[in-house]
Amino acid sequence: MRDPNQPPTVFKRRHFGNPASFNIIITNYIVVAGGLAIFTSHHHIHWFFWVIFGLLAAYNVFSLYKKWEEYDKLSLTAYIIGAAGLPLLFLMF
Fold this sequence. Notes:
By secondary structure, the protein is mainly α. The protein has helices spanning 20-39, 47-66, 73-92, and strands spanning 40-41, 44-45.
């Protein structure tokens, strides 16, 4: 019998959200693509893009340091592959 204090099983969450590496990878791609779209013109990159890129790198280091226990071998591999794809995005502009 169902406990009356618990929500029905239809509304129970069956996962724990996105992994931390997924959130960092998505943030990296959004910031780099947005920065390239705003601060690139005629194959010239504005200096402020590099400031944004440096702040993004600092965010990555801080986030990795803070949530290190959430990273297993698979998550770390996914993060490295995602970070390796950023230069490809850079070359597309």
